[in-house]
Amino acid sequence: MTRAGFVAVIGAPNAGKSTLTNRLVGAKVSIVTQKVQTTRFPVRGVAIEGEAQIVLVDTPGIFQPRRRLDRAMVRAAWGGAEEADAIVHLVDAAAQLGDSGADRRAREDVDAIALGLKRHGKAAILALNKVDAVKREALLEVSKGLFETGVYTDVFMVSAKTGSGLADLKRTLAARMPEAPWLYPEDQTADLPARLMAAEITREKLYLRLHEELPYAAAVETTAFEDRKDGSLRLEQTIYVQRESQRPIVLGKAGQTLKWIGSKAREELAELLGHPVHLFLHVEVDEHWAERRERYAALGLDFDA
Ligand SMILES: Nc1nc2c(ncn2[C@@H]2O[C@H](COP(=O)(O)OP(=O)(O)OP(=O)(O)O)[C@@H](O)[C@H]2O)c(=O)[nH]1
Ligand SMILES: [Mg+2]
Questions:
Q1: Is any atom of ligand 1 closer than 6 Å to the C-beta of 33?
Q2: Could you tell me if 286 and 61 are in contact, meaning their C-beta atoms sit under 8 angstroms apart?
Q3: Is residue 48 within 8 Å of 186, Cβ to Cβ?
């Protein structure tokens, strides 16, 4: 008898949702950076625990949206939760205890998510993340406060980074999956099309390198993806920035920054795809990238959210 189902991982931006997803899957399926709002659309990763196949749905952070892209991302995150067999609300425990502006915003987002769960009539598993970065005693207070909202069935203390507490969480998720045949072949861990995954990997390197200088609306698209006769792959990608003044930032002195981004992305892509990769990056300015309907469709996002 097998089990299979979907687990939505929701939470405020930067809670560690993508890190957790990757760790539970045991492979990198979703990109991770220190920048908030890294994940822009739901990304699936397939984990196996005994007889259960757990399809994790890593979602964009849920926060107070202002722009069109924000709204589409938040809508997609709640959509992931609505369709899931189980929901993990991942909370950055360190942010619950800190008092920077970002910590305060994160707390507001967490409270709003708890309210949203209540409104949707959804029970969720509360997972306090980043326990490696906080004192044990303080955690109890945090978990008590959140548990009192009444929307959580259980609490787990985890570190997506070190793996602490994850075995327990994974067993619990497996037990909550409905009896069903598996949804993916047993050796499949991800289901993003290669072109999209390739664009995500480059976006990750772009953010890792320029997280302070670049506005969050920078984007990457794969424009060409060809198999070559010698067994290698040839990819072309465009990095979109919003202003002319951002182009030199991405290029760097004598093109060094773009070169670094390209070589990091290429290395990871070659590893992932199992073929040598030739990667050509272009930088384009498109002030209205986040206002174009076709971009949203390509990411599976709702332009009119
Ligand atoms: N110390 C610590 N850092 C963590 C842990 N989990 C994630 N991080 C860090 O937190 C940052 C954000 O991680 P992500 O996994 O991208 O977070 P996310 O929730 O997917 O973020 P968005 O996609 O932007 O909503 C990264 O710098 C991670 O390395 C953890 O358990 N401990
Ligand atoms: Mg993410």
A1: yes
A2: no
A3: yes
